[in-house]
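Family 1 glycosylhydrolase: structure tokens wanted.
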Amino acid sequence: MPDQRRQGIFPTFFLSGFECSTFDWKDVGRRDMNRELGHYAHADEDYAMLKPLGIATVREGIPWPLVDKGNGEYDFSCIDGFLRAQRRHGILPIWDLCHYGYPDGLDPYSEGFVTRFRDYARAAARYVAARAHHEPLCFTPVNEPTYWGYMGGEWGWCAPFGKSADERRRFTTMLARADIAACKAIRAEFPQARFVHIDPLIWVVPPKDRPDLAEAARQEAYEDAYIAWDIISGLKHPEYGGSLELIDILGFNNYSFGQMEFGGGGKPNQPLKPGDPRIRPVADLLEEAWAKYKRPCIVAETSGLHGGRPDWLNDMVSECLAAINRGVDLHGICLFPAVDMTDWHKGEWLHMGIADVEPLESGALLRKPFAPYVAELHRWQDKLEHATGLDDDPYDQPVDLEIVVEAASELRPEADKAFS
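Answer:
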């Protein structure tokens, strides 16, 4: 009788990634986080770290504003070091094609924005396909289009520096349209390409003394949070060409600040404090978001801070297993970032990566894996994958999801109402 065990999408259940924003930032101008965090210079070291961690898939960025020279000319040489390191260390990339940044002088509300991103995405796919060491080709066309809508359309943190809910919705819609165009252009040449569409997993509640804001909070949690995905999936504005098949894989980003008290719009909401009774189990949020589209999904970013990283990982895996027991088709958890990143506003190291960064007098940025976090990762890998490192060919077979499902059934973790 043939083996009917269900296979995962990726070669390992645990994934990771590198912060790669290229936004035009308020009062600073164009930023390149790959450069600021030393990832270009440390690419081989960063990828070499992943194999003994048992991670074979990583989110990696292509900096659209830097490679697109205009008039259909591109210079992708800045990612050559990433491609060599991926091949050398056997790591499968999920390429972020647009991580909060677009080329200078491009109007994000124009039709030209859609067509220029489409053409760039096609060129990027061709470039990496010619140099890829393993299939499938995986892409995140536009990272967090809904969150970027807030950052750039309503809060004024980055380009296009909008300051209203209307601008935010308009900008998010254009990002979704560009995403659709890119997916179709890539699929036309690479039919087996996969797409991971990523946005935050959020929950918004009204202030305790403002029941009049309950409807506004509900709209942000259940409607505005899904503007981009609703368009890409074709559930709304079908005239833009979206479909459930095109949205492909859902990526839910989950951090502690994702559960918030509604602040009235125009500025970020305030995160709920640990122990707040209004905090909901992450398993509930995963189930609700997944049920809307019923596509395969991953937790695409998650991490605790400082010494709380091991506990955060334990809590997140438990919530994910509880969601799997409810039928959520979860294919992985991405511990993000692999290497620490800085606070965008203050420039301070956040101590949220698998590896911390220690600046040296020489200017180099030393990577130091946080041992308790790594130990907790290996504990869960042993339970869910029966492996804590990569063999010589991590792609010979994908994750056996039945092992994960069986572990979830056996452990039966309960969703934690006090999750924080």
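The longest strand covers residues 194-200. The domain at 14-411 is CATH 3.20.20.80 (TIM Barrel).

Cheers.
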